[in-house]
Design a protein that fits this description.
This protein is of the alpha/beta class. The chain folds into 2 domains: 107 residues, Roll (Urease, subunit C, domain 1), CATH 2.30.40.10; 299 residues, TIM Barrel (Alpha-Beta Barrel). The protein contains 14 helices and 17 strands. The strands form 4 sheets. A 7-stranded mixed β-sheet has the order 3-2-1-4-15-16-17. Strands 5-6-7-9 form a 4-stranded parallel β-sheet. It has a 4-stranded parallel β-sheet with strand order 11-12-13-14. α3 links the parallel β6 and β7. α3 runs parallel beside α4. The longest helix is centred in the N-terminal third of the chain and has 18 residues. It is globular and about 65 Å long. Bound molecules: guanine and fe (iii) ion. Fe (iii) ion binds next to β5. The site of guanine has 11 residues, from α1.
Length: 425
């Protein structure tokens, strides 16, 4: 495939590449190169001509709760633990109904597609059938990523709690089934968080992780009451991070921990050693009054971080809005910690493309060998487009105030992806 347009991508957090009126050539799923002049060997081949349009890497959202998409925006005058009990658990319990679940997954996947998220790591629910349906529908959608059946066997409502052995057996069944039947969607171990998983369950999941060499996703140190609760549940283990480590759930270079706001220096050391990716979720952290992650400091201290939506703690799946929110929150943090420089808009953009893509492979950039995942930006209403703007200005405006109407095309793994589900049935 050959595309023409104005390409912007970030090979590093401090490097914004802009190539105007250039040609990008792909082979199969990946980028071959970007050229100012089309190399002669490609002459005469069809070109997807996006001249004048800005083309950027698609978003990768490493922390999102698929069932909670239906709850976005609701109940934010509570804090985490009350919010879970009042709004989140009752909704997730409904996914026992497979018919309902399939309709909800289609709504979710359509919206991710619309917003330009081509890859993600998602929590499903505890229900085996519903989780499998999300994996299958994701495969059908043309989007790619990781999906986890959630594990919960303590401190949960009666209609959202599993027997430990059943939870482990269901998980293993999905691991094997997804390996046998799916190409572009993988299984990720998903203990909800320490308060809802017993030591026995975490231990069993750690063993599955070893046996099948699986990635892991969970929540870590999001809210002070949660941190205190974990301390009471595991008085013999010094820190929240060490609880996961104790049960083999910090798998080297294969673990995503969401939030990670309240960390000691020792915990940071362990997270760095294990190459854990910290998913910073600015919308969620503000909505649930959880706190402010010291993002710049964490990055400077060598922790891997990315920007994620955490729907429905976050109120939107649109990653451009999380990018803008990460920048805004970082500025608020800078006002009270002037020694900690705030992130720029493009640095946050990096954390939602190449930064998050790194967890999934060679993803999130237009460097040779990377998966070709892209969004073509085009103003929704050309009549409103009164001023000449540079490609970078157009990117800035899209990140701050763009939506799906401003995306003319979406590519994932080297192919154009159309709206996945026309009907919800
Ligand atoms: N901690 C445990 N479960 C959840 C969840 O669903 N959302 C958020 N934001 N935090 C959690
Ligand atoms: Fe979350």
């Amino acid at each position: 495939m050959i595309l023409k347009g104005n390409f912007i991508w970030m090979p590093a957090m401090d490097r914004l590449e802009v190539r105007e009126n250039a040609w990008l050539v792909t082979s199969g799923e990946t980028v071959v190169g970007i050229y100012d002049q089309l190399p002669p060997e490609y002459a005469g081949q069809p070109v997807e001509d996006w001249s004048g349009k800005v083309i950027i890497p698609a978003f990768n959202d490493l922390h999102i709760h698929a069932p909670q998409f239906l709850n976005r925006g609701i109940g934010y005058d509570t804090r985490l633990l009350d919010w879970l009990d009042t709004y989140t658990f009752p909704l997730e319990a409904r996914f026992r109904d497979l018919d309902f679940a399939r309709r909800a997954w289609k709504v979710f996947l359509n919206r991710l597609w619309a917003a330009g998220t081509m890859r993600f790591s998602a929590f499903a629910t505890i229900h085996k059938e519903a989780a499998w349906a999300l994996m299958e529908l994701t495969e059908q959608s043309g989007l790619r990523g990781l999906v986890g059946k959630v594990n919960m066997d303590r401190n949960s409502a009666d209609n959202l709690r599993e027997e430990t052995a059943v939870s482990l057996a269901d998980t293993e069944e999905l691991i094997c089934r997804s390996r046998a039947e799916l190409k572009h969607v993988g299984f990720i171990l998903t203990p909800r968080f320490v308060p809802s998983t017993t030591g026995a369950l975490m231990d069993g999941l750690g063993q599955l992780g070893e046996r099948y060499d699986l990635p892991v996703q969970s929540h870590l140190s999001e809210n002070p009451s949660e941190v205190e609760w974990v301390r009471q549940l595991h008085p013999d283990i010094p820190t929240y991070t060490q609880v996961y480590e104790n049960f083999g759930l910090l798998r080297k270079d294969k673990t995503i921990m969401a939030h990670a706001i309240y960390l000691s220096d020792g915990e940071k050391e362990l997270l760095r050693e294990k190459g854990v990716t910290l998913a910073h979720c600015p919308c969620s952290n503000v909505n649930l009054s959880s706190g402010v992650m010291p993002l710049r400091r964490n990055l400077e201290e060598g922790l891997r971080c990315c920007v994620a939506s955490d729907v429905a703690g976050g109120h939107t799946a649109a990653m451009n809005r999380s990018v803008a929110a990460a920048t805004a929150l970082s500025k608020v943090n800078w006002l009270s910690h002037p020694e900690e420089a705030h992130l720029t808009l493009t640095e946050s953009f990096y954390l939602a493309t190449r930064g998050s893509g790194a967890f999934l492979g060679q993803v999130g950039s237009f460097e040779p060998g990377f998966q070709f995942d892209a969004l073509v930006l085009s103003p929704a209403d050309p009549a409103e487009d009164l001023l000449e703007r540079t490609p970078v200005e157009r990117l800035e405006q899209f990140l701050c105030d763009g939506d799906d109407r401003d995306i003319a095309a979406r590519y994932c793994g080297g192919v154009l992806v159309k709206k996945p589900f026309a009907t919800m049935e």
